[in-house]
Amino acid sequence: MKSSCLILIFSVLTVLAVLFSLVNYSNLTSSRNTEGAYGAYFTKAEHPATAYEGKNCVFSFTVYNKNCTTNGEGNASFSYMFYVDGDVWWSEYNNTDYQIWQCNMGSSVTRGYLVPPWGTIKPVVHDVRIELYSYDRNVSQLQDVVSFPISVVVHVEIESMIISSYIILLGIVLLFLGYYMLTNGPIEIFSSPQNVTSVSREQSVRTVSFLSKLWNRPFVCFYLFVLASWQMIDVLFYTFSFPEELRPTVYLIVQIAYIVILVSLIGKENSSFEGYGFLWPEEALKYVVVSLLLAVLYGFVIIIVPGIFAGYDVYPSASSAEVLSVILLSLVASFAAETIFRGYIQSKLTELSGFPRALIATSVMFTLYMLHFLPFDFSRFPSEVLSLFTMGIFLGALFYRTKTLLCPIIFYFAASVLESLIPVRTVGSEYSSLFLECVALVISYLVLEVLVLKKEHATLEDENMFLEEMRTFWGV
Questions:
Q1: Residues 412, 270: one domain?
Q2: What is the DSSP letter of 137?
Q3: Three-state DSSP class for residue 15
Q4: Are residues 186 and 332 in the same domain?
């Protein structure tokens, strides 16, 4: 690849990173709303990011008294003032018969509060603000402030207007995409026939030499680097309590770095990028439509179907900034994962051992890459492994079937965006969700088999035989 193309790719990815940072500027800056005297301040504020309508939730705040005193003594009196969406919600000083609490200078106090159910009939995001006041000689002084959003979730049944609107929307999209493919016909991919004997002989040789040659391959070193660095980032986030607001930006930058390294690696190998799936097919619109159709079908099964009997939890809709952030993150994540695993690693493994072994090996490698080991939860670990593995199998089969990275990238991107932006979650066990996810992938693959037809180019021997049969039929 020419250096100018590499510079162009790097520039586009850098623009995406900068755009993401600008969209999330308020989250990337300090989230602490700082004002006041700071003789005392919050050191920890624990609260649920999501509250459920009709259920209590718990707040917990830890305050450190640096140098506040009351009447010159070694302790001070404090209280909280709670605000919701700018209005006073609850005053600890006025609502508890002036029962304020004490904290010695140079020490900390942790207090918990049971918050009553949120009265709402629709999902909404509340802006909560907690003010810390100190009292000395009947005079209050603001010391510190902490603010955070809380999403209130509402449980609904399938008859709800919210669920019905999403069912109608997804149904219309499926009908439109299906109608397009019905009127334009399936995708036809031509491939040259292979000699069965030579293929079987090659497979046996590949099987014997597969393990011996594997560790000497640059793509294995690249994968180990990607896996180690990606998991190390998770370890650092978990160990040092890295701010949640900054993590998506770090992931975005790291994935962009992976893409640039991969492009450079392929360029140094003097390999054809088309051989790794970097090609734009002639009927590109058909490939896009097929990928979107499969993604919407998959999303419909895993989002809508599980809640038919158990109901749904409806979350607040995403803001415009959140929508743009999800799109940027999903775009980079899908492009990085598919170019690394399906385009590069699966293609290399297919050369070594054939497609079936390459598909399984790549899916295992993809699963290890996507897993978050910390904090480790054994109850969820098996379902997460199976979910990622089956998704890797499907994406690998999709790439092998269509011969282009365009399809798995679009499927991954569209499925991620649908799952992130449709604010509906089903109520059920993880294994029932896993079962429906497998069903969705099987259905999607069956549809893929119908929409993508594989044909072989006729050889000269086949053409001569066909002509001879035609001459015999017409008596020529």
A1: yes
A2: T
A3: helix
A4: yes
User: Is residue 473 one of the residues assigned to a domain?
Assistant: no
Task: Give the Cα separation of 341 and 384 in Å (integer).
Answer: 18
Whether residue 404 is contained in a domain is answered as yes
Residue 31 domain flag: no
> Which of 73, 75, 78, 76 is CA-nearest to residue 61?
78
150: nearest Cα among 195, 120, 178, 171: 120
In a domain, 174, yes or no: yes
Total domains present in the chain: 2
CA 243/CA 160 separation, integer angstroms: 37
Spacing of C-alpha 297 from chain mean position: 18
Please report which confidence band the pLDDT of residue 16 belongs to, taking 50, 70 and 90 as the band edges: low
User: Do the strands 139-156 and 50-52 form a parallel or antiparallel pair, or are they unpaired?
Assistant: parallel
Q: Read off the pLDDT of residues 283-319 as tens digits, 9 standing for 90 and up.
A: 889 999 999 999 999 999 999 888 887 888 889 888 8
3-state secondary structure of 301: helix
Lookup: tokens for 161: 């207007």
15 shares its domain with 44: no
DSSP labels for 27-39? HHS------S--S
Q: Are residues 95 and 214 in the same domain?
A: no
Instruction: Tell me, yes or no, whether 262 and 330 share the same domain.
Output: yes
- Express each pLDDT in 199-245 by its tens digit: 333 444 444 455 555 666 788 889 999 999 998 988 888 888 777 77
Residue 106, domain extent: 40-153
Say whether both 109 and 211 belong to one domain: no
Place of tokens 């209050």: 140
C-beta of residue 145 within 8 angstroms of C-beta of residue 132: yes
Q: What is the pTM of this model?
A: 0.81
State whether 111 and 208 are in the same domain. Answer: no
Q: Strand locations in 309-362, DSSP E?
A: 312-314
